[in-house]
Specification:
The chain is mostly helical. The chain has 2 domains: 7-238, no CATH class; 258-309, no CATH class. It contains 15 helices and no strands. The longest helix is centred in the first third of the chain and has 24 residues, at 76-99.
Amino acid sequence: MSASRHPIALRLERQVGEGTRLLATVMALPLVDGIFAALVLAGAVSTVLGMIEVGLLIFGGSATLAVVLAEMEGTRAEQVKKVLLVGALVIPVAALQAALAPTIESVLAMAIFERFAALVILAIAAKTASASIGEYLPNPGAIIGLGMVASFRPGGFEFGLVAEPMFVAYGTGAAAVGVGFALGVALLAPWLRGNVDIDRFRFGSAVALGILPLTILGVIPTEAPLALAVLGVTALLAFSPEGADSPASGTGDDAPPAAADGGALDDADPDEAPDAESRAFEAADRAVGSVEDGDGSPGASDGDRAPWL
């Protein structure tokens, strides 16, 4: 497995440190910069499939996978406790934002805000796929801020809660799906480190994340879980076990010649090795002497020499 350094996780690590704080920052970031609220307002978590998509792509995804596998220390039980501690923070805040969605919606022109929400998700997908591209893109929080300014309607403010409890359940469930993803990674971490290519999963999840805005804008029906399907294919393609009969292992019929030579040396008689080595050095000395001597001693004659000697 390649030692992946996830662009987003690496940038956050420089700011907040490693381990539990980094995982909490990665999973709570959609709640802080308004991405989750934008998805709730856009109706992205109004179905069970939408809940799973948002949970895996926004709260879970390649950044969470990279942090748990590469940055979190401790035993498996300790890592599980850290993930549950982060989940105890993320899930209630997600439930509160989902419940207050009508209040937020009352002061925003949703037709404008949805376009900014789609744009910020595309920016995150690009940053996930390539760190070099992400350097030229604005911060997701700045895009959401501009979207709120552009769609702000102060005269329409009205405090309210979600009338349909299932919408709150879906929003809370999305955060729970992300926490469950991180928990599964922590439980399977020893196996995943040797069988999953993080870079391949990162790129595939970026593609799946880039499809999610099409659902928000209504280009793809919410009933068609295209992003979820892409993520599933990505998980299959990222599965890359280190086979025991790979060329590097030196087993099987395709073993490299170096392994065969090493075996021949191991089988040789140790008493004959010094004599063979001394004979090789003597032959080399005679060859060098024949080239340097121009008096026709044991080397080739002047007429037989190669023109570059």
